[in-house]
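Thread amino acids onto this structure.
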């Protein structure tokens, strides 16, 4: 079954330039296809997906996910996030860690889970507009991090 047929069978719902894929245990699974490239072409559907919380994938949803034909999962989370919520994947799915915050362990994005578990820390770290500034700074710094360059060259 090709990607288009799979999408029809599991109801891909277009939301702007991407499709929200209806899998109950993965409510944020989306097909990134459909975005327009600089030369006017479109990214093919059924090639690149994004999601969160693959640790919640279970039951019949595991089979539905497997039908998408996803061969590799790139996990961008920190080690602490991966340990707290390890991904569940169908057999024979390649799992690749690309910890894009590895070199920024003290930065706001790497501390979000801790901050959100304590309202006082969250208010100190993210209150009064600090959150936007932290994340903008981290996005800029991220591109120059050795772990990002290494992950791009040699995903593991």
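Threaded sequence (156 positions):
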């Amino acid at each position: 079954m090709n990607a288009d047929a799979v999408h029809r069978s599991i109801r891909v719902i277009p939301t702007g330039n991407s499709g929200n894929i209806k899998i109950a245990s993965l409510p944020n699974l989306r097909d990134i296809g459909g975005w327009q490239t600089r030369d006017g072409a479109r990214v093919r559907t059924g090639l690149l997906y994004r999601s969160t919380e693959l640790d919640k994938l279970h039951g019949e949803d595991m089979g539905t996910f497997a039908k998408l034909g996803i061969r590799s999962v790139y996990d961008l989370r920190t080690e602490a996030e991966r340990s707290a919520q390890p991904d569940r994947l169908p057999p024979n799915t390649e799992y690749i860690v690309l910890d894009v915050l590895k070199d920024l362990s003290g930065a706001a994005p790497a501390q979000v889970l801790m901050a959100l578990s304590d309202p006082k820390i969250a208010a100190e770290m993210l209150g009064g507009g600090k959150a936007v500034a932290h994340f903008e700074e981290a996005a800029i710094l991220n591109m120059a991090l050795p772990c990002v360059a290494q992950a791009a060259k040699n995903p593991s």
